[in-house]
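Handoff note, outgoing to incoming analyst
You'll be picking up this chain. Sequence as last confirmed:
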Amino acid sequence: MKKYILLLGTVLSLGLYSCSDEWMGDVIPTDKIEANEAFNTLKDGRNAVNGVLSLMQSEDYYGANYIVYGDLKAIDVRSKVIGKRNVDMYRYTETTEAGNATMWTRPYTSLVSINNAIDNLEKLPATGDEETAYKAEIEANFYALRALNHFDLLKVFARIPASLTGDLTQELGIVLADHVITKDEKPARENLDLCYKFVIEDLKFALDLMPEAAATEGWMNKTAIKALLARVYLYYGENQLAYNMAKEVIDAGDYTLVSYADYEGSWKASSSNSEAIFTLINTDADNPAREGVGNLWNKDGYNTMSITSSFMDLMDPADIRNKSVFIDEILNEDGSVKEKSYLSTKFPSTTTNKLHLIRLSEMYFIAAEAIYNVSAANAGEAAALINIVLKERTDVDDVLTAGDINIDNIILEKRKEFVAEGHTFFDLMRNKMDVVRTGDDHLNVAPMTIKYDNFKTIQPIPRMELNVNKTIQQNPGYAGHN
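Most recent structure output, in case you need it:
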């Protein structure tokens, strides 16, 4: 059972309100203290950061939905049967009334807590260089997490700027939670350009604040912020900046790619993953329990998804990444295979997985995609960047040449690296690539082709939000859109 760790003492005692009462539905923390004691020590600040991270571990956020969404809506992962969890993602059948409402409410719940913390940071006493640095680390984490929550909402509920050619100020973004929103406020969605600029400015501010030596386990550090900035720049269409930031992370050498020999064990919670730049850590006391992504994949759990046979056909048998897939076979009485499923083992525990949200390998793919987008003449450099990752996955040098490089192949190689980690759908959308499902194991009720500009590739603003905030605009194509 998830335990929320000291979410700013008590949420209500510090006067938190949201523009939707539903945002507050399950935020009451386990540990309650008096308001005048809520934010008076650095320990309180530490616990407040942990409280936000605990909210982000929810099955409605990174505990499950924000990971499986990026795979089930794409091409390499399918639901196993109708009626299992998250099948609407796979079938593109979300509606205003019955869509992924908690994917909207959970990040905003986190943002309520983050903004309240930012408003109370001056209460944290700090004496001496060590305490001052730790206070700066706390503050930097709040700004970085505020950026991450907004960015995730933008990915799901708005178009990706890199896929658009028009004026971004004319595109819908999200509601910006840049302050503690009071109960009487009815904020509208800001334009897409303003939203991405806000995310970038928060990350830059956090980067300036963050001490060089910051290293609290499970928190953001300077490298993690740079890596997130690289990702955001890529989505924003700022390819040169994305390349520069990704290369800065790579060249710093603070993290190293997991070797061919160590890859299989690198997913275990007991492993110290050398390329994990930002990780959400689930523990026995603090995890999404049976609703978490590990239990969704586990053959003895909910067993809701399978990697497609068409994806497995892409994989060379010698590729070590095959070791992150468990082949589950159901046999007939004569011993022949009746049914075969391919289950990801990147989340080997049903409850206590380490969720590696940013890995060093992603920086190589961001740098490769970005520099190729700057100019196709950079294909050789893109190939060299991807080859560094492939060396540790295939034990073969120089797998790709400049002639192999185009956006399709960059995304193909990234699919192999990040299957089941929630990247592929967004990679397709960012590059204006349709979802084209192949193979004969997809469910016959699922669409096999979804155009990248189909209105269903972004989620509806949930009815529960529309009902309490008449100012907010629905996404085109869904009930409630004007």
